Amino acid sequence: MAICHSAVTSGIAATLTSAPIRSWPFGRGSGDFKGVPLLAEALGKVAWLDLEVLLETYAEVEKARRESAQRQIKHFQHRIQSVAKTVGSCATSVEQNAKTLSWSVHQTSQKATDARDASVEASENVRSVVGAAEHLSATIGEVAQ
């Protein structure tokens, strides 16, 4: 970009210094060359000023772009941290629920085992009662004869 400005300025200055005086409406006569170098110098300064303004504008745009990107990164980071915190909280809750469920399953299993053992004992007791009833019935039958 600076090369382009420099080339254009140099080309215009060369044209100004080689142009015949009669083509200049502000010239005072055919021998007055004083205005041409001053005009070329002024044009060079204006071109450099234009270049500086252009570069500063680009720098400001780049700065604004960087600041916008930083804001977006911070916003994204905040959202990700929030999501991670929520996921961590949910994981803790799921872990606690799994422990509670495991304890409940263990308790249920223990109670089922106790119920089975009680059922087996009750079944044995019923057999004993049936045996005792048969024996009683046989005894009553013998006594009745």
General description of the model:
The chain contains two helices and no strands. The model has no long low-confidence stretch (mean pLDDT 83). Helices cover 88% and strands 0% of the residues. Helix 1 (2-18) runs antiparallel to helix 2. It has helices at residues 2-18, 35-144. With 145 residues, the chain is mainly alpha-helical. It has one domain.
Strand-helix topology:
Elements (H helix, E strand, L loop, with lengths): L1 H17 L16 H110 L1
TL;DR of this structure?
This protein is mostly helical.
Apparent shape: rod-shaped
Would you count the extended β strands for me?
0
CA radius of gyration: 53 Å
Strand content: under 5%
Order of helices and strands: HH
Unreliably modeled segments: none
Q: What is the assembly state of the chains in this entry? A: single chain
Kindly name the structural category. mainly alpha
Percent helix, as a range, is over 70%
Number of domains: 1
Q: Separation of termini? A: 134 Å
Outline the biggest β-sheet: none
